[in-house]
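To the structural biology subgroup,

Please find below the input and predicted structure for DUF2304 domain-containing protein, which we are adding to the shared reference set this quarter. The sequence is reproduced verbatim from the submission form. If anyone notices a discrepancy with their own records, reply to this email rather than editing the shared folder directly, so we keep one authoritative version.
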Amino acid sequence: MKLTLVTGLTGLVLLATIVELLRRRQLREKYGMLWLGLLFVIIPLSLFPRLLDGVADRLGVASGVSLVLFLGIVFLLLVCIHLSWEVSALEEETRTLAEEVALIRAEFEADRAERAELVSRDG
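Predicted structure (tokenized):
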């Protein structure tokens, strides 16, 4: 019973945290909706842990709690893969932007040198 209360309260605290982060715009909506969706599944399961026992029996898992833990690990692995993909895309975008800035800077310096040479010839 205590574990049910602790997990339920933890879920509610996480729900309040996610809502506050979304409200302050410190968490993007696409990630916030993902976590809110997960919490709306996890909170009822934490308060009524026997809900998944039937599904666990059909899948051959010892209990619903074990199934939730397994699905949680799979979910976290998928989140890690997604975040790695996002970081890779951002690194590529950053590299491309740095190259474009370097080219623009080189072109600017060349124009500046050309103007300085013209001014020195004329003046």
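Summary notes: Residues 22 and 56 are 34 Å apart (CA to CA). Helices lie at 2-23, 29-47, 53-59, 64-122.

Regards,
Lab coordination
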